[in-house]
Give the backbone structure.
Amino acid sequence: MTGSANQYGATNGNRDAGLDEIASAYRAHAAALYRYAIMLTADSASAEDAIQQVFVKLAGRKKLPSLAVADRAYLRRAVRNECYSMLSRRRESAELNDESILAPAPAGAGPADREEQAMIEQALRRLPPDQREVIHLKIYEQLTFQQIADQLGESINTVAGRYRYGLEKLRQWLAPCQEDAL
Amino acid sequence: MKDHDRQSLEAILAKYRPAEAPEELLCRVEQAALRPRRAWHERCSAAMSVAAEVVLGFIVRGLVTATTAIVLLLLAAGGY
């Protein structure tokens, strides 16, 4: 977020400019935010709701925040809060959307690749959200532990611990895949 | 976990990517979140312009009426 121009006044032109900025930020980051949300919630419907809620709330504010197009961290935090509040409301018995949380295998992928992907998908779904989140940020968004810690407001040790525990569980669940890969 | 195992697992995970947002979802959210407010805002601005025009019209009409009345009074007072 840009520091000094942090809020817009009540004038019409500024409000339009604020909405334009939010729309630009949406177009620039929505796809990545969706990937983050679906990995966090493990549910495509929840991910859609989270993204929608964040932007509806942003656009509905009396004073619009100034969003630099590059400010994905701010939006990621907002999506994260929304996802966690959804996860806390979600009942254990709630039926999740069965759409995959991973992108479809490429057209040339063989049966072994598809099987491997299915196992990874299952294993990721079994992980606690906080561990899945750190794995997503580290592997798919390629953030450093320091960046993840800053993003989540946690210590670097906590973040590294979640990553380590998450990978350890995945290793156990994916042992056959790893043997094939070696 | 040994470094070798970790790297091997990271390599397997990195072969896959999280699911992408469907294009229609992105359009739907943009419409739901941003466009109605803009439309509402534009309607509000238009309504404000109409209101300003009406008020201005009243003021101009009042001035014309008052000027006419004064001229008529002056004419009457002058005995013409």
